[in-house]
What does this fold into?
Amino acid sequence: MLRWQTAGESHGQCLVALISGLPLGVPVDLDFINRELRRRQAGYGRGGRMKIEHDEVKILSGVRHGKTIGSPIALEIENKDWANWEDTLPVEDKPVPAEKQRPLTQPRPGHADLAGALKFNLHDARYILERASARETAARVAAGALAKLFLRELGVGVLSHTVAIGSVKLSRSARWEEIVAACQDGDAEIRCVDAATGAEMKQLIDRALAERDSLGGVFEVVAHNVPPGLGTHVQWDEKLDGRLAQAVMSIQAVKAVEIGSGVSNATAFGSAVHDEIGYDPAKRNFTRSSNHAGGLEGGITNGEEVVVRGYLKPISTLRRPLQSVDLNTKETVKAAYERSDVCVVPAAGIIGEAMVALTLAGAARQKFGGDTLEEVQFSFAAYLAELKAF
Ligand SMILES: Cc1cc2nc3c(=O)[nH]c(=O)nc-3n(C[C@H](O)[C@H](O)[C@H](O)COP(=O)(O)O)c2cc1C
It folds into this structure.
């Protein structure tokens, strides 16, 4: 079973990911992991914090001579900003000088501040926001990069593109080759497959910045060359669509998840929605005329591309702060302002890729088993042969 967790606070020493269950022998390309971390930091609309952090991963365990050794892999990403926070949030129980104290008593609507303060009976929400912050997703992206390296060995690729920023929407679907090109583009910060729509998206982000406002939007993750048969229909919590939905929904600010064209399907006739089945005798493959189902039927991959969209609410921290109430005095105040991004949809797409890759890698581990990559590939090849012989 592939298992993984993260630890670390936004302004703590570092972020950590622990991932176990990858087989022995997966090639680990450090540059690739660091490139993924940079992609997360690069999205258009990000704020000052990302100018401080230049994330690089340190592998502490589980990889030797450039390959996984089958034991748990610990990953660490240093927080450069820790130097500015060490006195404010010391590990030891020691007094914090007055000028270093940075309590957050004016909870920001849309953040975990108030709910977390109530839950833990804290009159300062600092500990809450330190962990709720999306800075944590750097660790997810590092773990996701390992999942991608594993999936690559099975020929599966996972990428994302931006389909909406606020009201500016991509009005067509994107082919895999276009998504690959958008991701390779030097100007990949917005990652829209249509240049004109991408330019409009950037303009809207610039407007939100000028008006001291914020924006949400939609990213789409596509997993290419996924074999049929990952996931299962037999138990509710093992259905792969449900697992993908949880994985993507867990990303900070994502408030809805869509599989395929699930949202528009709901208002269409069935005849326009379901993907008719054909057969290609030359390739000995079942084919589909369309992919409205997003590659999943009954919680099982059906051999089409897996398509998952994440819908983000606008960023909650506004430069024009909303109304709040002080946790101590109960007076009406303006919500606190912490350095903030204006729009994070392109960056969230990279996190979406990581979450989808980790989920698919977990499903592939369940289906193909094995302790070594060689064993996984042996069982995978046998399965593909079985499909051809079907
Ligand atoms: C990559 C990324 C960066 C984010 N940066 C910010 C930010 O700078 N300011 C902010 O208010 N929210 C930011 N968010 C969203 C908050 O972390 C999130 O809204 C908050 O933790 C509450 O969680 P929830 O929206 O999932 O309920 C970011 C989200 C992501 C995915």
